[in-house]
Design a protein that fits this description.
The protein is of the alpha+beta class. The protein has 2 domains: 39 residues; 128 residues, Rieske Iron-sulfur Protein (3-layer Sandwich). Helices cover 30% and strands 21% of the residues. It contains 3 helices and 10 strands; from the N terminus they run H-H-E-E-E-H-E-E-E-E-E-E-E. It has a 4-stranded antiparallel sheet, with no helix packed on it. A 3-stranded antiparallel sheet has the order 1-10-9, with no helix packed on it. The chain has a 3-stranded antiparallel sheet with strand order 2-3-4, with no helix packed on it. Strand 7 and strand 8 form a beta hairpin. The termini are far apart. It binds FE2/S2 (inorganic) cluster. The site of FE2/S2 (inorganic) cluster has 11 residues, from loops. This is Ubiquinol-cytochrome c reductase iron-sulfur subunit. Component of the ubiquinol-cytochrome c reductase complex (complex III or cytochrome b-c1 complex), which is a respiratory chain that generates an electrochemical potential coupled to ATP synthesis. It is a single-pass membrane protein.
Length: 180
């Protein structure tokens, strides 16, 4: 009789012990989940880092459209034939940050200038100059030509070009993708 009582008590202890371990493990997992999920990228981040497709249909020559990609302002400017000619005429090697226009725009679609919308001096957003004369920074007066190359400081670098690739029909561009 006494043996049986001991055995029952022993079984109860074992059962209680297993239950305690289970509850403990579940508690740790529950407590750790916010930390684990915080370490991975959230949906918003994944969405922001994905390439951005931009339709170019309807963007007239001389017009600039603005888009946000990865939290950054992107300026997409439709250059006129005069703006393209001016960019090609300029001696790229004589500029503050020497670079040929052909290194900054697509050979197939040279009418599109796509740059990050931040002055390399201190990050202000440059404005398009009237009459297709390039860009000017409202903060300290840096100027950029129709290729986004700096022609007057204090900026010492050209407007940055984000990776982009044109759809074969030329009617849209994918920001954040590399040309094949
Ligand atoms: S931020 Fe553009 S010139 Fe200073």
């Amino acid at each position: 009789m006494e043996d049986n009582k001991d055995r029952i008590q022993e079984q109860r202890r074992e059962c209680l012990c297993k239950l305690t371990k289970f509850v403990g493990a579940a508690g740790v997992a529950t407590a750790a989940w916010p930390l684990i999920s915080a370490l991975g990228p959230d949906e918003k981040t994944v969405g922001e880092s994905a390439p951005l497709d931009v339709s170019l249909a309807g963007v007239a020559a001389g017009q600039t459209i603005r888009r946000i990609w990865q939290g950054k302002l992107i300026l997409i400017h439709h250059r006129t034939p005069e703006e393209i000619a001016a960019a090609r005429r300029a001696d790229g090697s004589a500029l503050i940050a020497p670079q040929a226009d052909s290194e900054r725009v697509s050979a197939q679609y040279p009418q599109w200038l796509i740059v990050q919308g931040y002055c390399p001096h201190a990050g202000c957003v440059p404005n398009a100059r009237p009459g297709g004369q390039g860009w000017i920074c409202p903060c300290h007066g840096s100027e950029f030509d129709t290729s986004g190359r700096v022609t007057r400081g204090p900026a010492t670098a050209n407007l940055a070009i984000p990776d982009h690739a044109f759809h074969p029909d030329g009617l849209s561009v994918r920001i954040g993708a590399k040309e094949a």
